[in-house]
Amino acid sequence: QVVADMREKRYVQEGIGSSYLFRVDHDTIIDATKCGNLARFINHCCTPNCYAKVITIEAQKKIVIYSKQPIGVNEEITYDYKFPIEDTKIPCLCRTESCRGTLN
User: Fold this and answer.
1) Are both 13 and 55 inside the same structural domain?
2) How many CB atoms lie within 10 A of CB 44?
3) Any signal peptide, and if so, which residues (predicted)?
4) Are residues 50 and 76 in the same domain?
């Protein structure tokens, strides 16, 4: 967590507008900010059509995105980021009927 916090601060100082950090478990956070596949751009939604799951393959933890329903051509792929509750709120822009209003 300490390294992830330092990276987030450094990215802000470098003018990088977004960071792509994904918590795998209590001790591991994957940083796809500067290197990662297109899945790092999947947006949050309060009523998502997918979910993220961490699985282990040959002793390595991997993040897998599973569909919750059929997804149409040109339909955006989304999942719930499940950010921890914090005092400083991050606004949610998903605009669904059941939007919680914040990511955290």
Assistant:
1) no
2) 16
3) none
4) yes
One domain for residues 15 and 2? yes
pLDDT of residue 100: 93
Give one word for 101, left, alpha or beta, with left for phi > 0 and alpha for psi -120 to 50: left
* DSSP per-residue codes, the chain: -HHHHHHHHHHHHTT-----EEE-SSS-EEE-SSS--GGGGPEE-SS-SEEEEEEEETTEEEEEEEESS---TTPPPEE---PPP-SS--B-----TT--SB--
66 and 20, same structural domain?
no
pTM comes to 0.80
53 and 19 share a domain? no
Domain span at residue 8 reads 1-39
Q: What is the mean pLDDT of each run of 10 residues along the chain (104 residues)?
A: 86 84 88 88 95 93 95 96 88 94 92
